[in-house]
Design brief:
A two-stranded antiparallel ribbon has the order 1-2. The chain is 44% helix and 6% strand. With 140 residues, the protein is mainly alpha-helical. The protein contains seven helices and two strands, in the order H-H-H-H-H-E-H-E-H. It starts with a helix and ends in a 13-residue tail after the last helix.
């Protein structure tokens, strides 16, 4: 997408990097695709991620008790939304290492227009501390 816009719509790239309020997914992607912002974006990602820890170094909290894991996750998600759902998307290559990957969907947190920036005044956003990072999400 970024390469297409660089060739056919460079004005949109300029808009996304100078004027846009990141109200849509397109300008969000374009913001992170511009090479002259590489240092700024790398610094932001470093700040957000902090120390690097290898997956193999993290001790399992549950060992092989999958039922306990699912029960715990359901209780945690139920605290946030009665409509939340989950699906197990664990890749085969990590199953034998005791890891699970669960994807959740919480309808109340999904914007209808896929904004790149959350709604600052939404009651649920305020309840959980509000917007703490003014940048759009770097990895949509």
């Amino acid at each position: 997408m970024h390469m297409f816009n660089a060739l056919f719509d460079p004005e949109k790239i300029e808009f996304s990097n100078t004027t846009s309020a990141f109200a849509d997914l397109d300008t969000n992607v374009l913001y992170y695709g511009v090479p002259d912002k590489a240092k700024e974006i790398d610094a932001l990602l470093e700040q957000l991620t902090g120390e690097t820890i290898k997956l193999s170094e993290i001790e399992s909290r549950w060992e092989n008790d999958v039922d306990a894991q699912i029960s715990h996750l359901l209780k945690e998600v139920a605290k946030v939304s009665e409509y939340a759902v989950y699906v197990d998307i664990t890749p085969p290559e990590v199953i034998d290492k005791g890891w699970s990957v669960i994807r959740t969907l919480i309808p109340e947190l999904c914007g209808m227009c896929l904004p790149g920036f959350p709604f600052k005044n939404h009651p649920r956003m305020k309840k959980f501390g509000g917007v703490t990072n003014e940048y759009p999400h770097p990895l949509p």
